[in-house]
Predict the structure.
Amino acid sequence: MNNGLILCLMTAVGFGSWPLISRYAGTNNAWTGFIVMGITALVSMVFYRAELSTIPSTQALGLLVFAGVANGIGMIAYTRLVTDQQFGMSSYAPAALVLMVVFITILGALLFKEVFTITKLLGLMLTCIGTWLLLK
């Protein structure tokens, strides 16, 4: 599956559905994170079983462990936003994801020496304004 738009839509539906389902389930953030990430790992193992036969280098594995810790911290914060009734589902959860886009765009351009165009800058400005409006 190499169609970028289809992958974007699948990502949006997948990542956009689980917080809604989790809030509806009414569980706390610990159970939400544990079950969602556990099932995610199982689904990934089944889907990628052929690709898991090759073991990455030690350096790559170390970086992936670091990425897992970073993801775990983000998951703890995000599941708190998703499960705690004081945070509006239609404001804080999407605001966190939008801010993730800002973070990835800036660091991606810096780390991977990607072109940072005026269009991207304008998009980031609009994204930040949109985040601010979501939280008003």
Observations:
- Residues 29 and 79 are 5 Å apart (CA to CA).
- The radius of gyration is 17 Å.
- The helical segments are 4-25, 29-47, 58-83, 92-111, 118-134.
